[in-house]
Design a protein that fits this description.
six-stranded antiparallel beta sheet, 6 strands, 41% strand, disordered N terminus, alpha+beta, Chorismate lyase
């Protein structure tokens, strides 16, 4: 949406920045970013809300070495160009490939209350991985979608 001239938000949607910290990478994040377990990563967690309530809780991770160049990433304020845009502006590393995986997973304890559901409830989960023009991973995100919500994508095929 951003590269197409949008904001990254659906109509009527707003984002709340909930968390911005650095921490050791757990296995899933380390694997996605090409790091070792325990390497420093920065994580940014957001909650998306519209007139019907919470639509999703999203967490994005980047390598700690990259986070040093992006101090805004861990601040509690929106990123006008989203993570991939900020990475490109600061480093020249342009996101050229993205892989989305859609699954149904149990909501973990640390996300459940933010999403407004009981921990362990199955919900739709979308993971996003981005790579730059050199084939190096730049970011990894996991989005937990609230029950009863529709996930929609629209693309021009020209």
């Amino acid at each position: 949406m951003l590269r197409g001239g949008g904001t990254g938000l659906a109509d009527g949607e707003r984002v709340e920045i909930l968390l911005g910290i650095t921490a050791p990478a757990e296995q899933e994040v380390a694997d996605a970013l090409g790091l070792n377990v325990g390497d420093l990563v920065a994580v940014r967690r957001r909650r998306y809300v519209d007139d019907a309530g919470v639509s999703a809780v999203s967490s994005t991770w980047i390598a700690g070495t990259l986070a040093r160049e992006l101090p805004e990433f861990t601040r509690a304020e929106p990123l006008p160009t989203m993570t991939f845009g900020l990475i490109e502006e600061r480093t020249g590393r342009r996101a050229t490939r993205r892989r989305d995986a859609v699954s149904v997973r149990a909501v973990p304890d640390e996300v459940a209350s933010l999403l407004g559901v009981q921990a362990g409830r199955d919900v739709l989960v979308v993971t996003n991985r981005y790579w730059d023009q050199h084939g190096e991973p730049t970011e990894y995100a996991v989005d937990y979608h609230a029950p009863g919500r529709e996930l929609m994508s629209e693309y021009d095929l020209d």
